[in-house]
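sanity check both lines:
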Amino acid sequence: MKQFESFGLDEQNECLWQNGAQIMLPPRAFAVLRYLVENPGRLVSHDELLDKLWPDTYVQPQILRTYMLELRKLLCDDARQPRFIRSLPKRGYVFLAAVTENGNGRPIIAAAVETPKNGATAGADHQFATRELVGREKELRTLQSCVERLASKTRQIVLISGDVGMGKTALIDTFASEWAASAKIAIARGQSVQGIGAREQYYPVLEALAHLCASADGERVCRVLARVAPAWLPGSLREGAARNENGRAYAGTASELCAALEELAAEKPLALILENIHWADDATLDAISALAHRRMPAKLMIVVTIGSHETGAGHPVERLRQNLSMQRLCTELTLSPLTMAQTAELLRRELGASVLPSGLDVFVQQHAEGNPLFALAILEHLIGERFLVNAGSGPERHWELRAPLVQSETGVPAELAQMMEVEIARLSAAEQRLLEAASLISVAFPAWAVAAALEEDIAATEDACDALDRRVSFIRRAGHDELPDGTRSAFYVFAHGLYREVLYQRQPAARRARRHTRVAERLRRIFAGREFDVAHEITMHFEAAGEWLRAIDTLRAAAHAARENKTLAEELLARALGIAENLNSEEREETICEIRAALNGSSDTLHAVQQKKTPRMHRTKT
């Protein structure tokens, strides 16, 4: 057992302990942490980590970012002020904490750390309480009911789906840790990894079996596998097993696997957990299907997690899901966004406070849109940037906002942006280009505007958006726009506003400006003679492009068209006056004089308009 601060690394059980509480980790995340802990205080390069953990397989280096994000969440580590893992860009990682050896094999409880009643650890402001599952109580009860049905030898197949950050892994962690602690069922857990699962047959199944063979029931498991399915014994693939036509290791047949798992479950109920099967190979999906369709009674439970963002229509996992669902062979759990009340509860638990600063829950819910991972990342970012500070002491913490959040340009949290960049990078160059253009408009965007930004055909752009909608869940079709000439154009919405922010900011400023200008010009042509109807939209694009005079001219023309409505005309001119501040000194003085003359001294209206602000997470103008 290796100890660092309040944590103990349990290599035998492949888990962490903190102050007597067990924390389960996915096998690969545990392997990454173990290697870092075994090499403290020195640079571990990306290549070294990949070579040690994936010696015979090519893996994209970006996968390490995913594991680091997961480990920092578990360790409550802050990438900007790290206590455990420091990232050195383009080089690797350094494990910072001092590591000591504890040979008694028992969980380590750090005597020096005082744990208040609410579970928060005394220390720095950003040190959060031990995380608990929030908003997934119903799903956890469903999983527990499935386990109880195993007593009647009724096999259970559970499909857990949800977008990135919805808590699939957290739900699995809670379920697995509770039942593993009870010792009433055996747990075998493996996961597919992007770049590996689709190329290596049965990768998550083999990982789960290796995990099972290393457990307390390992001796019995190995005996059964050696007798019923010897090719499935861990290590057999590297000890002379046959090779298939693609050069990959052959792991035996699916029927042997089914027979072995059923025999293992005869003595003790068995839960086989396979995560991220949207990255799994066809053989793994066929094995899941075979286990679901077999009629032999068995105390066997198969739990799989599916990333909804990866499985559009036609994806092999979607076909498997439809098949099992139609035949009523599975229980489906779809993780939906947290409600406002659930987000508030999540924040209270994270902060170790019974009362939240006014407006914090609304702000986080608005920008996280009910996504638990995004909510936690935003909260950590607010604390890291000192927008939110701990002003109290003792067991009951008191948090205060340093400024009204409605005025806070907080940005997208860095690690969240990195995670999204990894997802975006998996798309083709054409798909990335399309999504970047879509981000110029709003969370909802019409196909014609994307086509205008890219100078492409509207119908072709619509087809590309539909294809992306079917394949992944970055965007979804939401209806049609009807244009003044009677034509219709489909419009779409981003799955999450933060993806739009990342896509917007990743574009070079000059390219972004050109695209904004094209959209503004297309708006003027589409609404020729009716520009007043879309004056604010046209102005927004000219303003974002740095076309200050064109933005002002648009507003002045709209104010002239609205001259019968004095209040509206004054609001338009007041906005023009604000934009004029961006002009060079000579143009600015002349333009401001002209606008003030048009305003005709309506200072009250001007002042009111200039004070208006729009709540938002981030927007940088060109």
